[in-house]
Specification:
Layout (H helix, E strand, L loop, with lengths): L2 H10 L10 E7 L2 E11 L3 E6 L2 E6 L5 H6 L4 H24 L45 E2 L10 E6 L5 H17 L3 E7 L3 H5 L9 E4 L4 H6 L6 E5 L5 E5 L10 H11 L2
Parallel strand pairs: 6-7, 7-8
Antiparallel strand pairs: 1-2, 2-3, 3-4, 5-8, 6-9, 9-10
Helix pairs in contact: 1-3
Length: 268
């Protein structure tokens, strides 16, 4: 991870107030009102929380004066940090765009596993996991849902194995948010990390709109044989894997058109 990424994260995660686990009946930010709030983290610029619709965050500058005071918001400090975040974010995305697409980074934690990439499936596509294409998916096992558990009955399920420390994983979040918003009537999107609950909840940006779970024992991840992340599975309503792999792999990218095609082809 390059220094500018560390700076971005550090600026995003500085706690200001001891408000973790505080309950708030409703929180209005601009024109949006959230209900049944449980505050998880407060930074110099944002408040992060779970609510009746999942995980969310709001800019302190958009809250009422009373809530700004409650969360100890300093407008001058917040503006300074947001400017620095924008600068670092632009530099980070420039780095990501220019990294060689044909050589995706090996984000495996275990150095000994770096040579353990699974053989390519019949399609010839390289993956960093065992291939389950057109086969039944392993059971989804989680330790804890950090959002309400989604109803998967009769729906396609996209599982993203990811981690907060992984730059390509974070880069994939806006794309996954888009699939969730566009195809949510047919597709459940789930991000599963083997990190601690605290580590995942501290992620400040990008905001995650879909379902999130943790499993510190990595049971599903190990069952799939994942050695590099992000790794995505799309599973049809019958439990059969219809797409798998690194979503940014050159020539095999996962995008909105690919998702739409899978939903159309394998719907009942």
């Amino acid at each position: 991870m390059r220094p500018l990424t560390l700076i971005t994260l550090a600026l995003s995660l500085v706690p200001l107030a001891a408000c973790a686990d505080e309950k708030i009946a409703a929180l209005k930010a601009g024109s949006v009102t959230y209900s049944n709030i449980t505050v998880t983290t407060v930074s110099a610029t944002d408040v992060y929380f779970t609510y009746s619709g999942g995980m969310g965050n709001a800019k302190l500058k958009n809250l009422s004066p009373d809530l700004q005071k409650h969360f100890k918001y300093d407008p001058a400090k917040g503006k300074e940090i947001e400017a620095k975040q924008a600068e670092n974010k632009a530099a980070y995305h420039d780095q990501l765009v220019h990294q060689p697409a044909a050589n995706p980074p090996d984000m495996t934690r275990d150095a000994a596993a770096k040579s353990a990439a699974a053989p390519a499936p019949a399609s010839g596509k390289k993956i960093w996991a065992n291939s389950f294409l057109n086969q039944p998916a392993p059971n989804l096992v989680v330790e804890k849902w950090l959002t309400p558990e989604p109803d998967r009955h009769g729906k396609f399920v996209l599982i993203d194995f990811w981690a907060t420390w992984c730059p390509p994983c974070r880069a994939a979040i806006p794309e996954l948010n888009g699939y969730y918003k566009k195809f949510g009537d047919k597709l459940v999107v789930i991000g599963i990390s083997d990190e601690t609950e605290d580590a995942v909840r501290r992620l400040a940006s990008p905001k995650i709109d879909y379902a999130v779970a943790i499993d510190t024992k990595a049971r599903t991840k190990n069952a799939v044989g994942v050695t590099g992340i992000p790794h995505v599975l799309i599973i049809d309503p019958q439990g059969i894997v219809r797409w798998e792999g690194f979503p940014f792999l050159d020539g095999y990218e996962l995008n909105e058109q690919v998702v739409a095609g899978i939903l159309a082809k394998y719907s009942n």
